[in-house]
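User: Here's a chain of 113 residues. Predict its fold as tokens.
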Amino acid sequence: MSKKHLSLNLGDLTTTDLDHFLKTADRPVLLWPVGSTEPHGPHLPLATDIILARQNALEAALALRTLEIDALVAPDLPYGVTDFAAGFTGAISIPEDTLVDFIVAAAETFLRD
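Assistant: Prediction complete.
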């Protein structure tokens, strides 16, 4: 599959597609949408942060590709530290050290590839 027609979404690729992408990319870029699942009032979805993060990442990856920079978008990380929203229905919070450890471990894996 040519890079021009390759999905922007890392999760859509096969192992073979990704291997070819990485072997032929000059300096590949991976964008990782991160956003909390939390209340934003009665009028917005709990996933507002990750919806915006994903859309921004997709648009940025597309813009990079038009500049001939090989870019992909990683699967979303839809959780964060939302302690300030504690007590509101739908606030899903994880401990800060857990989030940092997870992001570091995943980033190290991304970089290894």
